[in-house]
Specification:
InterPro entries: DNA-bd_dom_put_sf, MerR-type_HTH_dom, MerR_fam. The chain is mostly helical. It has helices spanning about 10-15, 20-30, 45-60, 65-75, 85-115, 120, 125-135; strands at about 10, 35-40, 40-45.
Length: about 140
């Protein structure tokens, strides 16, 4: 058990890590976080919990993982699956996002360099792209 001096209240943790206490309570409700101890009904967190909270913030803040995915990764290997499968799935989704963003960037770069005043209306490349995606439109 951790010593009393190393444990922080939910309010102290929230202030230190830039969160609200309701967020920490929600994460507890969702099963991704548990306090190290409770004293007189107050949640107390130690270094291990602070590290877990930091990881949750990093993974959510980067926009790469949902809370459900984070719960799976934090749980490790379970009877129903393995955290590595979740990470592989997330990486595949990120690769798809990268591909879409790369394509979007190429479109925007073309628009910037297109000599036409209204590329959306009269650029041959834009017309070809529309036709490639949706066929000939009336």
């Amino acid at each position: 058990m951790q010593t009393r001096e190393k444990l922080l209240t939910i309010g102290e943790v929230a202030a230190r890590l830039g969160l609200t206490t309701s967020t920490l309570r929600y994460w507890e409700e969702r099963g991704v976080l548990q306090p190290a101890a409770r004293r007189s009904g107050r949640r107390l967190y130690g270094p291990e919990e602070l590290r877990r909270i930091a990881l949750i913030q990093i993974w959510q803040g980067s926009g790469t993982m949902s809370l459900d995915e984070i719960a799976i990764v934090l749980a490790g290997r379970t009877e129903t699956g393995h955290w590595r499968d979740t990470v592989r799935g997330r990486m595949a989704a990120i690769d798809g996002q990268i591909d879409r963003l790369t394509q979007a960037k190429a479109y925007l770069a073309h628009y910037l360099n297109c000599p036409r005043d209204h590329p959306a209306d009269d650029c041959p490349m834009v017309s070809e792209e529309v036709e490639a995606h949706f066929g000939h439109l009336p």
